């Protein structure tokens, strides 16, 4: 997936949140460590059971990501930047002609802060 801009948000518990933009859409991602057992088959041989190889398990750590919210329909032009506000609940996004204010918890509504699009300009 194409990413034009990325901003880290305040972590929640053991998960990290980040905002990303592609051309006209903003996404909130959750990144979290995942520990899962992995079998190592050749590491232990039980001599009392006739040389039977018993798998040993260890925990493997990987990082998983999941899209939490999609903030769309706020921009008609390519988004140039995003910035998280100091309250860690709102953020702003900007394209060539508009600046929008968003709430992290509400993905379908934004407030237009600046709009310098001329009236005679077509979308």
In short:
By secondary structure, the chain is mainly β. 0% of the residues lie in helices and 57% in strands.
How would you describe the overall organization of this protein?
- This protein is mainly beta and 123 residues long.
- It contains no helices and 10 strands.
- The protein has strands at residues 5-8, 16-21, 26-40, 45-46, 52-53, 56-71, 81-84, 90-94, 98-103, 106-115.
- The strands form 3 sheets. A 4-stranded antiparallel β-sheet has the order 1-2-3-6, with no helix packed on it.
- A hairpin with a 5-residue loop joins strand 4 and strand 5 (52-53).
- The two termini are 25 Å apart.
- The mean pLDDT is 86.
Strand order of the largest sheet: 1-2-3-6
Order of helices and strands: EEEEEEEEEE
Low-confidence runs of at least 5 consecutive residues: none
First-residue to last-residue Cα separation: 25 Å
Instruction: Give me the Rg, rounded.
Output: 23 Å
Tell me the strand percentage band: over 45%
Percentage of residues in helical conformation: under 10%
The number of helical runs is: 0
Largest sheet: 4 strands, antiparallel
Assembly type of the chains comes to single chain
Give the overall average pLDDT: 86
- Name the overall outline: elongated
Number of strands: 10
Structural class: mainly beta
Describe this protein with a few key phrases.
123 residues, mainly beta, four-stranded antiparallel sheet, 10 strands, 0% helix, 57% strand
